[in-house]
Every structure is written in structure tokens, then in C-alpha cells.
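ENCODED BACKBONE
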Amino acid sequence: MRKKGWLVAVTAVILLMAAIPAQAESPSTEETTVKTVSSLTPTVTSRLEEAVRKLAGSEAFTFDTVMDMGKTWIVEGELKDVAAVFQTEYNKVNSRVESTTLRYKIGSMDQVLPSELKKKVLKAIESFDKDKKLEFEAFWRVHSPYQNNEPKDYWVFWGAGDSSSSLYVDIADENRLSIHAEYPVGDVSSKLVTRAENALRNTWGKSVAIAHASRHKDEADGSFYWLFEDANETSSVRIGAVTGRVLKVSTPQTDWKSDRDFAASFSVPKYAPEQAKKAVAAKAKWLFNMSLSGYSVKTEQNTYTFTRKGQATLTAKINKKGVFYELSLVPSNGKLQ
């Protein structure tokens, strides 16, 4: 999110998602109404209390507000033994607690976080950017077991002020960390920005100005890279934060009109293996400084994968005209750094 007030917007997501109808053509007739805590049934209250108790590790909390969202209850309150508020969502249809979120100010880290986890988080913050230390103003403890995406059980730290940065700790995955931070393009090395713009020009044949820059690190897969995007976020370049090497280039040159058009267009490979190598060779050399001599080629619809034992893997996608519009490199060690 690239605008002021992003943290407030994130806080409101649960409420918005509960209120938005599933399909635009079938608008919801349900209204949000404020209820009293006493309007909740003993069973619902007990389940909500158990969810908060389990996450907070404390009995000291109160429910303050209840909002009836139609199919769900949104219940908010505060913890008493530490400065924090919480929000729970109860699904009436499925008779279960959908999610529980505890929201703390960053000053509560010593009181809330386990010692070893705190050390790990602080070390990750320090090593993420030696030149510009990340600052956080709040952290949440979230348990949302029924959502579709991961993580579902985690801590998340939010950047201070207007900083759009975050640090996630995936509890279900051995407390593995992932960090995301956005930077003004002017604060990023001009060499990297120029490298990204040149990569887009070489791939697309057009000059594209970089408007957004962000840095990403994921302990789970070992990746650590810069992501550069144009103003519309339709063109992007990944550059390794350790190696400074271009890892992926994506441009908006898709030209199929529908899924059916895509399937029909790529039902038969456009290029034979040697033709594919010849067609992509110049871009592979310029972007990744790699020769495809001795490489094998595998084709699946519009995706061509070039592999050779002990060497980096190249994946490239074509449009209907046969133009390679997206190319990505996986180094031989598998780490995108």
C-alpha cells in the first residue's frame, strides 16, 4: 500500500471483507448494527473468550463493543495486563471463531514477546538493511485458521509513520521470518535503478521509468531481493540484494483475449527446442549473462524452461507473437539473492 493511513486501512480489512457482498450483482441487504456484549449467547461468549485467552495467555481482558455484520459478529476489547486491544470475528453460519487479532504498541515487545523470538526479530531487522534501519510502531498477534492464504498463525510488525514495511513471523513454520519494505526510488542505489530500467528496455524494447522500489527477504526460501516496478505496477524487475544480479523481468506484453484464446494459442508449442534457444538467446545473454549451449528445453503451453545439470535454470514465457515477455532465473544454488 503506497499511501498515508495504510495501517488504519489494514485494521479495517476484517470489517470490510465481512461487509462486502460475494458478487457485485448480488448486493447484500444486511446492515451493520452495534449490539451490546450481553446480546451474545453464552456459547458464543465462551468461544470468543477461549480464543482470546489462548492467544493472549491471560485471563485479564474485557469485551467492549459488538458489531453484527449479518453473518458474523465482530467483537472488540482490550487486555488489562498490557496496553493492547483485540478484535475477534465469529462466524454465525459455521458457529466458530474465524479469527483473533491482538494489537500491541511496539513498546510492549519486552513484556509480550518470548526472549528468543525478540532476539531473532531484532537481529533480522538489523541485518535487513545496514544503511537504513527499519522502524516499527506496532505489532499484532494473529490467529486466523480458516483463511485461504498463509500464514494463518503469526506475529506481524508494522512500519512506523507512513513507512509501508512489515515483518511476519510464521509460528506454524518454526518462527520463520519474512520482511517487506518499500523505499523512495531516490533512496535506492542509482546503479540498481538503472539496471532495472535497462532490463525492461531490453526485454520490451521501450523505455520504462522505475516508480516503485521495495526490498524483500524470506527466511523460508532464502530469497533476498529488490523489486522495481513502473508507475502502473505492470512491469517489474527483481534484482538480488546480495549479488546485484537481475533475477526476473516481467513486461505487459500478453496478447490473448481469454482463457480459451490462451489455451488454443498454446496448445501446440510455437518453438521447437533449438528454435526456442535461438529465439531467447540474446535476452538470456544480456539479462543474465548466460549461454544456453548444452541446455535442455521443456515446454508447457507458453512457458519454456531451460535446464542444465549444475547450472542456473531459465524460465521464459511467450505471447502469441512468440515474443518472450517474462524471463526469470533460478541460480544453481536455488537462492534468489
